[in-house]
Amino acid sequence: MKLNIACPATGCQKVIEIDDEKKLQAVYDRRISQEVEGEELGDEFKGYVFRISGGNDKQGFPMKQGVLIQKRVRLLLRKGASCYRQRRKGERKRKSVRGCIVGSDLSVLNLVVVRKGENDIPGLTDTQVDKRLGPKRANNIRAMFSLSKEDDVRSYVVRREFKNKKGETVSKAPKIQRLVTPMKLQRKRRRKALKMRAREKGQKAEAAYQKLYQQRLKEAKERRASEISKRRSRQSKQNN
Description:
elongated; alpha+beta; 240 residues
């Protein structure tokens, strides 16, 4: 079985092949997201702790979290489910996935280093892979460079240089997200002013409507009272 070990701290990953069934007994019957002691896989991993993150069986079908079985099953999957990518809106598809319990039928098992051990693993923990892209959000840039709110974030953006098709050296930088600029504050004040203006206009319209409504009620009441008085005077005349 091949073990694909990834180290988030260094950004490296390494594939190690283990044929000894006694060592592989440490990962058998474990589930995705469970942790494994490195000593059980070999003396070179002493002190390490690995987390099982997934894998593939010998036919290439991926393991799926939540399927508590040690073989393949066919599930009806929809948008948002792992091991499936929707091609059309509202589409569902029945696909074969491998259960999340580790067994001997796996060809590759993915592991993630949770705790580093005493010795370095060559090609995994002794080298550092630089990140290709820097942070994009304004607060993440501030956290990366320990900036205050008064500092200009735009001068600290991580730029990358590369050569285009013409052979020219070009520098690119990401568009900063959630950046508070004077223009953004001005637009916010304008939106607030428009909202307050619309509220005042609605209140004035409501007051004018209520005034007219009360006036109409008063006129209707007076009209009804005059009709009643006319009817009573007419009846009294007829009685006399």
